[in-house]
Write a structure and sequence with these properties.
DNA polymerase, domain 1; globular; 40% helix; 5-stranded mixed beta sheet; 412 residues
């Protein structure tokens, strides 16, 4: 990185620290426990206390959408191939997902959240950030709000929710994950840096597995190790992301609870029931995906300049290829033309494909959707990157087209 660029980034970090407002916010991160599996156990008492695997068939490359805690003790986790899950937990009970039911319960949960505060940022059907600063200013303690929220969710839905309480989103999200299920962790104002210091560096959002490996090789294993690094190290290591990453490591990030979510990309993908290498078949699949993306772009009034192809080979090697166009487009023909141009360069007789995806990004204008609406575009886990094991630190395919794929087929 050029010296001038590094200096500019360091200056931004220093300015951000000096200009940061001293006002204290109070943020909750609420995350339902093993949501899909918990709903199945709620609706079917015979499943309670038993290992439940919500997902597709192991004979058809199904994946685990959610595993109950009884199954997790056997090493089963979300996004694991169902065949692997059954090998680890042969007594597991496979249940096909019921997305309509999950959305019904999700609506109830979000209504409960909105009874606490209007400042809600849903991240998925079963988790959200809540800014409760106003409630605390009105005389309530953060712990009191969190306990009341947990009680209300349990009484009205029969489910448990883990809650993290802190002065910012980073710390609150980490807190909610520490004592699952039915957890509650509170970090008092001023204790953020000490709380984060001993935790693994991968706990910070945006630090993916590949980055963790690189940091560990450099001797940065904990968040405290990272926070102790000089400004220049952040600039060299993270570039334009340096300011945000450093703030998260110090527990001082000021990211707001966003009630609207920006559309960054629109994509569709599919996993084949058997590996495919016939160019004509692959082009047909690509055309179908390009059509799905184009229809969604048209319905949303969006046009993008960047076309991306995502592919997974038979050996699970996953890669993306992208091209920036001279003009923005939303037409199926243009998307397919460039997507096929990217994919055709990767074809050879020895390569077989198990997954294909097409995406469009770099829109003309930033498009903000209400968070609840944006969530509706992501109802199916099988359209999204795996939550537990993301392939990329920052996946492009963040706004999948809302088509309900066969839950018996694996996707990322």
């Amino acid at each position: 990185m050029a010296l001038n660029n590094r200096l500019d980034i360091m200056a931004d970090i220093i300015k951000s620290h000096v200009d940061s407002t001293p006002s204290i916010r109070h943020i909750l991160h609420a995350d339902l426990d093993a949501f899909y599996a918990a709903v199945e156990q709620l609706d079917n008492p015979e499943l309670r206390g038993k290992p439940v695997l919500v997902g597709g068939s192991p004979e058809n490359r199904g994946v685990v959408a959610t595993a109950s805690y009884e199954a997790r003790v056997f090493g089963v986790h979300s996004a694991m191939p169902m065949k692997s899950a059954v090998r680890r937990c042969p007594q597991g009970i496979i249940v096909r997902p019921r997305f309509g039911r999950y959305k019904e319960i999700s609506n109830m949960i979000m209504d409960i959240f909105r009874s606490v505060t209007d400042l809600i940022e849903p991240l998925s059907m079963d988790e959200a950030y809540l800014d409760i600063t106003q409630a605390v200013a009105g005389g309530l303690r953060p712990l009191e709000v969190a306990l009341d929220l947990k009680k209300q969710v349990k009484e009205e839905t029969g489910l448990t929710v883990s809650v993290g309480v802190a002065t910012n989103k980073t710390v609150a999200k980490i807190c909610s994950d520490l004592n699952k299920p039915d957890g509650l962790v509170v970090v008092a104002p001023g204790e953020e840096e000490a709380f984060l210091a001993p935790l693994a560096v991968g706990k910070i959002s945006g630090i993916g597995p590949k980055t963790v490996e690189r940091l560990n090789r450099d001797g940065v294993e904990t968040i405290g190790d990272m926070a102790a690094q000089p400004l220049e190290w952040f600039a060299n290591t993270f570039g334009v992301r340096a300011e945000g990453v450093r703030a998260r490591a110090l527990g001082t990030d000021r990211d707001e609870v966003h009630t609207h979510r920006e559309t960054k990309s629109v994509s569709a993908e599919t996993t084949f029931s058997s590996d495919r290498n016939d160019p004509e078949v692959l082009r047909e699949e690509l055309a179908r995906l390009a059509g799905n993306v184009a229809r969604h772009l048209e319905n949303s009034g969006l046009q993008g300049r960047t076309v991306t192809v995502k592919a997974r080979l038979a050996d699970f090697t996953t890669f993306t290829r992208q091209k920036t166009l001279p003009a923005r487009t939303a037409t199926e023909e243009t998307i397919l033309e460039h997507a096929w141009g990217l994919l055709s360069k990767e074809l050879n007789p020895e390569r077989s494909f198990r997954l294909l995806g097409v995406g469009v990004s770099s829109f003309l204008e930033s498009t903000a959707l209400p968070a609840a609406k944006a969530d509706q575009l992501q109802l199916s886990l099988f359209d999204q990157p795996a939550f537990d094991q993301p392939v990329f630190d920052q996946p492009l395919f963040d706004q999948p087209v809302s088509e309900q794929p066969d839950p018996g087929q694996e996707t990322t």
